[in-house]
Amino acid sequence: MINNINTIIFWAIIIMMTAMALGFVLPWLQSKRLKIGFSFLILLASFGAYWQLGSGPMLPEYYSKEAQILRHRQDKTRILLADLRKKEFKLQLKIEENPDDIEAQWNLLNVKGIYAYQLGYYPLAVEYWQKALELMPDTVEGNVFKNMIKNLIENAKINLKQD
Predict the structure, then answer these.
(1) Domain boundaries, the chain
(2) Closest Cα to residue 110, out of 136, 143, 77, 86?
């Protein structure tokens, strides 16, 4: 479906450009043979462009469902990584203002761990998360975060074994 839409758009652009080229050049040409020859040349060039660009070997792969899903995931990952960098920056500022803020410290380590995990640096992610576990308080909320981070560590170790 997408390939058909792209073909229609491509040909619409080619026809529009051909009409503009003919409208610009043909009034200047005096000979009918030159006008017909030039029109034929533009149409031939349009077909040649489509033959080379419109049916390229990479287009079916680019428009495949898998490639679209991958590009969508990459877009989401870029957004997530940007958000993590913002959080990391804010936590760094918070720690600079108050170096004794334990909550900001373990939150920063957690954010760094998530960032490393998303980039595929699993050993570094595990290292950050283990340091964060050491700083977390033994409260109900702290235990919830500890369990979440322990699950993340297990996932990172599984991914590390698969690589």
Answers:
(1) 2-62, 65-162
(2) 136
CB of 149 within 8 A of CB of 157? no
The size of the chain, in residues, is 163
Write out the DSSP string of 30-82.
--HHHHHHHHHHHHHHHHHHIIIIIT-TTHHHHTSHHHHHHHHHHHHHHHHHH
* Token pair in block for residue 15: 């026809």
Cβ atoms of 149 and 106 closer than 8 Å: no
Tell me, rounded to whole angstroms, the distance of Cα 48 from its chain centroid.
Answer: 32
Question: Which one, of 49, 50, 54, 118, lies nearest residue 82 by Cα?
Answer: 118
Long-range contacts of 25-33 (CB under 8 A, 24+ apart): none
Q: What is the pLDDT of residues 102-146, one digit of tens each?
A: 899 989 999 999 989 888 899 999 999 999 989 888 888 878 888
In words, the CATH class of domain 65-162 is mainly alpha
> Which residues does 113 contact at the CB level (< 8 Å), separation at least 6?
124, 125, 126, 127, 128, 129, 132, 149, 152
Q: pTM for this structure?
A: 0.56
Tokens of 72: 């969508």
